[in-house]
């Protein structure tokens, strides 16, 4: 048996999402997910540590969309780096991913264990962004604030992007959220 | 047996923190926590749903420190409401709570299950703040961004407040963090 099945990861994620949506997260088992994907439990566990991980994929790939953009941004002030990070993150969410993302989020929002795992992943992204900003010369506290703000803006843009009937591209929404964020801080 | 033991909540939290720090979160049992506090398991479960909850206390009381300040703030622009919320939150962290908060945070940071629960609590605070800001007339998206930013600033200020050797009051640090946040957005 080969150690790698083409598309196994994607098939497992799709099967898991279907099962979580129909049977509920708690009742769905890894064996059922693997069977629905036409794969074995062994294969499942080569890709994911446990059931809780299956919807999250490889955080390295997701985080890299933001971090690579930070590394490539020529300007080194915090606001420009935040904007670059969000634009990079937008690249992870092309329009053809929108329906999947919306279905996936509905399952996460309905499941406490998955909500917690998602928050932990985003917390990890914030920590990586803070390090990336600091590496670009942003002072430590500013780097942490910028990173937390960046993740907050990402979550806001993402929620709008997957809303019913929304058609704007992720990048367009992200730009509007950044503008709104700046306006917010300019007042008061 | 009375349904309420004086200080039971505090005693259970203190006992739990001691046990988590010495035996580790996973190994400590509710029975041991209750025994160390001189109380019964029944009493534990009157106060906390499970072991994972014991360090978090009543989120209503914590959140109210922020939310009451928002309701009482005369100015209704988002930046002023954020500042008011943080000043209110600072009231929850007098200097005499600092040592406890630092010990508690060290245990949380060392335990994935507690990190996740903490993130969920803070996410709940952000949602409540967004509603409170919107109730004061802040537009929806701005309210969400302001709430997420507020929680990010809170976390940043809190981390500085419990750092080794730190002596500044929480409110002082929070003011500095707000100023840094504004400066961050003003550049770029």
TrEMBL record, chains A, B:
Keywords linked to the UniProt accession: DNA-binding, Transcription, Transcription regulation
InterPro entries: DNA-bd_HTH_TetR-type_CS (IPR023772), Homeodomain-like_sf (IPR009057), HTH-type_TetR-like_transc_reg (IPR050109), HTH_TetR (IPR001647)
Domain HTH tetR-type: 6-66
PROSITE patterns noted in UniProt: HTH_TETR_1, HTH_TETR_2
UniProt-recorded Gene Ontology molecular function terms: DNA-binding transcription factor activity; transcription cis-regulatory region binding
Highest taxon, organism lineage: Bacteria
Residue spans binding DNA: 29-48
Protein name per UniProt: Regulatory protein, tetR family
